[in-house]
Amino acid sequence: MRAVTLLLAVVAACPAATVGDALVRLENAAVAVEVSPALAGRIVSLKRQGGAEMLAFVQELRRRDLATLPQAASDGAYLHSGGSVVWLGPQRAWWSGQDGNPARRAARATWPPDPWLEYAAMTVVERTAEHVVLQGQASQVSGIALRTRIAIAGDGAVVQAIEAVNTSPRSVAWDIWPNTRARPDARVFAPFDAQTRLRLEHSTFDPAVERQLPTSVEDGYLSFETALAPAAAGRLHTGKAFIVQARPRLFAAVDGELLIMAGAAVDPTQVHPDHAPVEVFQCAGGDPIRALLELEFHAPYRTLEPGASMRTAVAWRVVPLAVADPSAVRGHEADAARLGELADAAAR
User: Fold this and answer.
1) Domain that holds residue 188
2) How do 158-166 and 144-152 pair as beta strands?
3) Is residue 9 part of a domain?
4) Which of 45, 102, 141, 343 has the fewest beta carbons under 10 Å from its own?
5) What strands lie across the sheet with 309-320, from one edge to the other?
6) Shortest CA distance to 34 belongs to which of 17, 64, 57?
7) Mean pLDDT per segment of 10 residues, for the chain of length 348 residues?
8) How far apart are CA 174 and CA 299, in angstroms?
């Protein structure tokens, strides 16, 4: 008995050494999800049992020693990680209300994101086989601390409830911005009809080598045409779609799988004018390391007094898809509606 006690004591004294060691895994017969508390609670893996991975995550980070991760700071750089994260909008205000980095405030910097939302470690406050609750740190940039609950259901649905609390001594104004980095080789299908308001933008850090990514609309779905983006040396094609929907939902197809994503219902008039309830950013062609597909939702823009909070939620499900075309995707609109209902319930 003494030997067993000593062994348990040694194990308890040896905390997880790498990001991969410290992952929280939620799994049932339908779905498997991995969450990294060390990287701001991001979801790093989402897949149907027996199916392909649907998220883009920098796999080298699984081997990264926890002690070598950057500490969140106002002068922190961007740690490219991928996965599904939670930001705050609008982007133009990321650095305008903080005092810790006067240079970024003066420049009205729109990059990088809040380091506390990108890589400040979250604390696991509750965990079962089917859900985990994570508490984030108070950001010295945004004044916000996030609390999230990620849960899986028997049918494979994954639901993330997100609460943002103003921990600063002054009022702040933000929206909650879930950003899912899906596989960049996936084809996105964004519901689009005659009543849908759409804005397309081509923003670039390097106009000399970046071009606009073409789009198409077929059978009620908008897609970026990555196949039309030639992989010329050093040449990238990027596109950003701002889509006004009261029932946020998106679809992404790859490797015989369909990722369905839905958010809580939103009044589009309450979303910050810089943004839209649904946004898609895609970068294709050229350097595969820079390939990117972001599936994004924006909750209502709110002013929070000290101690006040706001909530939203997002849900995903992965299902088999024989053919990646609009008619096949349309057959899963009922699944998206169900996910929307789950997000609505989680956001209350």
Assistant:
1) 16-347
2) antiparallel
3) no
4) 102
5) 123-127, 131-135, 144-152, 158-166, 309-320, 257-263, 249-254, 187-191, 221-224, 215-218
6) 57
7) 41 70 98 98 98 96 95 92 97 96 97 96 97 98 98 98 98 98 96 90 73 91 83 73 96 98 98 98 79 96 98 98 96 98 98
8) 9
Contact (Cβ atoms closer than 8 angstroms) between residue 143 and residue 305: no
Q: Which residue has the tokens 């057959």?
A: 331
Q: Flag whether 160 is in a domain.
A: yes
Catalogue the long-range contacts made by 337-342 (C-beta closer than 8 Å, 24 or more residues apart). Answer: 337/247, 337/262, 338/157, 339/157, 339/159, 339/249, 339/260, 339/261, 339/262, 339/315, 340/247, 340/248, 340/249, 340/262, 340/263, 340/264, 340/265, 340/315, 342/153, 342/157, 342/159, 342/262, 342/313, 342/315
CB 307 within 8 A of CB 165: yes
Q: Residue 26, Cα to own-chain centre: how many angstroms?
A: 18
DSSP 343: H
* Separation in Å, CA 165 to CA 26, 116, 218: 26, 14, 41
Structure tokens at 96: 């305008």
Q: Which residues pair with 301 in a beta bridge?
A: none
Rg of the chain on CA atoms, in Å = 20
CA distance 43 to 259: 14
Please report, in angstroms and rounded to a whole number, the separation of the first and last CA atoms in the chain.
49
Question: CA-CA distance, 125 to 141, in Å (whole number)?
Answer: 24
Single-letter amino acid, residue 171? S
Residue 302: give its domain's CATH number.
Answer: 2.70.98.10
Q: Is residue 20 part of a domain?
A: yes
Determine how β-strand 257-263 pairs with β-strand 144-152: unpaired
- Residue 150 is given by DSSP the state E
Whole-prediction pTM: 0.93
AA identity, residue 329: V
Whether residue 3 lies inside any domain: the answer is no
CA dist 326 and 222 (Å) reads 9
